[in-house]
Amino acid sequence: MTSPHDELVSEVRRFAVSALDDARTEREGVISQTIVSKMCELGLFGLTISEEYGGLGLPLGVVCKLVAELARCDRSVATMVGLHAGLGTHAISQHGTDEVRAAWLPRLARGELIGSFCATEADAGSDIASVRTTAVLDGGDVIVNGEKSYVTNARYAGCFTVLARWGTRSHALVLVPRESKGTSIGAEEHKLGIRASSTATVLFDDVRVPANHVLGKPGAGLELAHEALACGRTLMSAGCLGTAQAALLRTIEHVTTRRQFRRTLGEFPAVRRRVTELAATFHAMGALVAIAAKTLEDDDTIAVKVFASEGAFEVADSAVQLHGALGFMEDTGVCRLLRDCRVTRIFEGANDVLLLRMAMSRLSANRVSTRVGHEACDALAEQLDHAFDCARTHHGATVVQRQSLLQALARADIAHRAARASLGDGTSAATVVAGFAAQHWAERGMASIDALARDDDAEQRAILISDLIYAIARPCAAE
Ligand SMILES: Cc1cc2nc3c(=O)[nH]c(=O)nc-3n(C[C@H](O)[C@H](O)[C@H](O)COP(=O)(O)OP(=O)(O)OC[C@H]3O[C@@H](n4cnc5c(N)ncnc54)[C@H](O)[C@@H]3O)c2cc1C
Q: By alpha-carbon position, which residue is closest to atom 46 of ligand 1?
């Protein structure tokens, strides 16, 4: 089925294939002004900004496709655009006053300014509610003080959406222009991957901005930050889709041409099976991204973030493995895909923490899994509902301490979502792939459920002896 946005997707693909060079951006550690200017011409900085303010106002599903196209060719560039379209501009678009929107969005849409989001601090990572940066009303102004860590787009940014403490108990999101007196950028971080994506500390020293730069209701900053994160996670997952596609296509090309033992690698059953599983993962990733982009529900965006970041890493890691020594060589670029996607399991919420949040949310909502008339999927749904019931009844309120159990439950829930999403509407031309992917993820989910009891026991044993283990492990590691 064609969509009115297909031409734009093709245009961005042509641009990405012809103009992006991830080896070069990685080597130089910077995204060149030529690339940024070309992206401005294509409207890539106005994807999520409404037409009223000069953007393209595209549905998030289409924006995801475009970010995936960029990520296939350069993950740093995709990170710049995805962060700008999500976390960097979401709260301004959704919660800025008319005046603030009119002053900022047109420039952000044109790419004259690039957006960025500052929540993390040295002592506030996964626990963003504990930020120490403050925003204090002073007449008609707000004064911001604090230091934010690991800010993506910092070097390129024209404005920052800053999460700050507001009074003693609540938070505010504040728009801080880069040129505001007292704002400064620290040195670039040296990273494992996405090396041309800028990451730096941003300092706010008595920075004064007009009071209308508080976005949305003052005091509601944390909720607004979570809302922006749901959008950001979805776009980041779309980037993972691009990375996985690049890795998968290169792997298929390689295993169908490389010969060993007088056959192509792809003629060996184990290789075939691995590639098929990678394709199933890729298929499920795409289906989950489409769902999250439509609903932006917390659970859908967490599920896709965890699934896509782990999926991309799995596909990229297998790509390195199936390329053999070539996969380990810089020239082929396969190991860059692996390096570039590793961070996605950490930023926009560490996966380990998101899994806990997802399981607790389902436990408290008492939600049951949807049945879809697919045997393996529905069998998993039944086991999953049973496992959640057991966790609820056996552990009661203390379930919050059973972290491995919660993480395993959330993983099984995500596998079920992946299986269900893979089936799509059943009319897709790729029905065979959909069926295989659904079966594959239903089986993976079932294996997760089977491991639950063992994991729960093991976790309890580990907790009981953890002091001892730490005491032994420390000197062992130091030797
Ligand atoms: C390249 C890069 C770009 C980034 N860009 C931005 C940005 O633009 N804006 C921004 O605000 N931040 C950004 N970040 C920060 C990022 O969002 C945080 O790193 C992330 O939220 C995790 O926080 P932390 O690093 O402090 O890890 P910590 O919170 O210290 O956690 C470390 C690990 O401990 C475990 N853990 C933590 N809490 C729990 C728990 N409750 N239960 C069980 N296990 C737990 C998890 O395994 C976790 O991975 C970026 C980070 C990187 C690496």
A: 352
Is the per-residue pLDDT at 433 higher than 80? no
**CATH architecture designation of domain 363-475:** Up-down Bundle (1.20)
Is 224-351's fold the same as 363-475's?
A: yes
Tokens of 112: 């004259």
According to DSSP, the residues that pair with 135 across neighbouring strands are 144
Q: What sign does the dihedral 431-434-440-443 (CA atoms) show?
A: negative
Please state the atom number of ligand 1 nearest to the C-alpha of residue 345. Answer: 49
Identity of the residue numbered 267:
E
**φ, ψ dihedrals at 212, nearest 5°:** -75, 0
Using CA atoms, how far apart are residues 353 and 349, in angstroms rounded to an integer? 7
Strand pairing of 115-118 and 159-166? parallel
For residue range 298-337, list pLDDT tens digits in order: 999 999 999 999 999 999 999 999 999 999 999 999 999 9
Q: In the CATH hierarchy, which fold is given to the domain comprising 224-351?
A: Butyryl-CoA Dehydrogenase, subunit A; domain 3 (1.20.140)
Distance from Cα 349 to the centre of ligand 1, integer Å = 6
φ/ψ bin of 48: left (φ > 0), alpha (ψ from -120 to 50), beta (otherwise) = alpha
Containing 279, the helix (H) or strand (E) segment is helix 269-295
State in Å: Cα 335 to ligand 1 middle. Answer: 23
Pocket probe mutation, ligand 1, options 174, 342, 346, max atoms within 8 Å of Cβ: 346
Question: Residue 185: in which H helix or E strand, if any?
Answer: strand 183-188
Task: Report residues whose beta carbon is within 6 angstroms of any ligand 1 atom.
Answer: 117-120, 125-126, 150-152, 191, 199, 343, 346-350, 352-353, 356, 403
pLDDT tens for 50-97 read 999 999 999 999 999 999 999 999 999 999 999 999 999 999 999 999
The residue whose CA is least distant from atom 25 of ligand 1 is 125
